[in-house]
Amino acid sequence: MERKIVLRNATAEDVESILDVQHASAGAGAWELGDYASALADGGIFCLLAEDRVGERVVGFLVGRTVPGEFEILNLAVKNEYRRQGIGRRLLGEALARAHGQGARRCWLEVRASNQPARDFYRALGFAESARRQRYYRDPEDDAVVCLRQWVAAGPAP
Ligand SMILES: CC(C)(COP(=O)(O)OP(=O)(O)OC[C@H]1O[C@@H](n2cnc3c(N)ncnc32)[C@H](O)[C@@H]1OP(=O)(O)O)[C@@H](O)C(=O)NCCC(=O)NCCS
């Protein structure tokens, strides 16, 4: 069956579906229901969904936060059986376009050093690995790699 994937903003009714995707996605941030509820109520945070219109189900999500001049990716996952079909690229592309429209001139995120697929994904999407934070994660312990993508040369935030 052909898949038709559309992107849309999440609402409070989507939190359970987002958690389903997160729980099926090792490497995603271990958020709880209340974390998503707070994020959706926060005007500085947006949550994008990828939905398969055929099954009417959420198959991916991205949560990001804008602060003056910057955008931070807080969580991102695509359901296993939907990976390597460009959905992560679409979610990130849409998020970056929105953030840029709101004045962001750089985007950053932290990823587990052991999460090589995600590191490869971000590298493919134009991010550079700019720093490493030793033993940043717990359960299991891991370093964080800070990934950064800039639109313009570093300078004061617009
Ligand atoms: C990281 C993740 C969101 C990528 O989503 P996706 O929809 O599979 O990504 P895309 O299909 O858009 O991939 C875009 C490009 O990224 C790179 N890429 C993606 N997954 C990759 C992998 N497993 N290995 C190597 N490169 C990869 C490729 O260059 C790919 O382009 P290609 O398929 O034409 O070669 C997905 O693997 C995921 O949900 N992982 C588990 C959760 C997670 O780790 N989240 C990140 C937390 S920081």
Structural summary, described in words:
The protein is an alpha+beta fold. The chain has one domain: Gcn5-related N-acetyltransferase (GNAT) (Aminopeptidase, 3-Layer(aba) Sandwich), CATH 3.40.630. It is built from four helices and seven strands; from the N terminus they run βααβββαβαββ. It has helices spanning 15-23, 33-41, 87-101, 116-124, and strands at residues 5-9, 45-52, 57-67, 70-78, 106-112, 128-137, 142-150. The chain has a seven-stranded mixed beta sheet, sandwiched between helices. It is globular. The model is unreliable at 154-158 (pLDDT under 50).
CATH fold-level name: Aminopeptidase
CATH superfamily: Gcn5-related N-acetyltransferase (GNAT)
Query: What's the gyration radius in Å?
Result: 15 Å
Strand line-up of the largest beta sheet: 1-2-3-4-5-7-6
- At the first level of CATH, what is the class? Alpha Beta
Judging from the principal axes of the Cα atoms, what is the shape?
globular
What structural category characterises the helix and strand content?
alpha+beta
H/E order of the elements? EHHEEEHEHEE
Q: How many helical stretches?
A: 4
Number of strands: 7
Distinct small molecules: coenzyme A
